[in-house]
# Entry
Amino acid sequence: MSSGNPPFFMEKRAVRRAFEQAAAGYETSAVLQDQVGAQLIERLDFVKLEPRWILDVGSGTGLQSRRLNRRYPHARLLALDLASNMLQQARRRKGWRQRQHFCQGDAENLPLATASIDLLYANMSIQWCNDLDQVLREFARVLRPGGLLMFSTLGPDTLKELRQAFTAVDDRPHVGHFIDMHDIGDALVRQGYEMPVLDVEHYQLTYGVAGDLLRDLRNIGATNAAAGRARGLLTPRRLQALQQAYEGFRADGRLPATYEVVYGHAWGSGTPPSPCEDGSIVFPLTRLRRRP
# Structure
């Protein structure tokens, strides 16, 4: 998620390509993403909501889509992802009774009708976008009045050890620039959300060697997509410099990798959509809006 600093601007083609390549083995390595997603869904225990349409933004292989469908078996769910291979995996893995639909699209330009979604769920996905305000504006647009946004994203302490170790290699960006929780809260207010609630949790994964962390990141598609990144693979000399620098963080025989996870939810507002003659409001797939 960019702060507007050009070196940290994400190249969407590079992001899409990385997730396309990671799709087949994603669920094997996405341990933290799965845990965070499950905890985000557990937070719905404190919310009274009976959604008819759920949007899973950055759905990946459908890990959380399947959970959401089990929680709301009468709801229809639209799984949206930037990478078509992720959606193919999600389609293969869904239960035959689950009411899921699939759409390739960008969170910053949702191909959906206004006021068409009751619950918008975005687990560990919006950090791959360049303009937080634009993302939240799009989320607000597609939410029905009184609809709920539930999301998780990464905060500034994420992979702080790896970021510091890379300074021994060069001065180019290697780890994403993540936005502070308070700035996310300010953006929610700017976009007109009601009653936003945010909190932070820190997680730490450990590895035997730095190469195992790099492999895990590659396996989930979390590779460097910054516009100012160094092109090509790390040379053996640069990789050795990275590994030596990372050794300075070793504790109890293991190398830590910190993740700062921001959890949030907020309610949408706006002008209600026009009801049908019987008073209901429906969202058929034919109302999908074409991307310009």
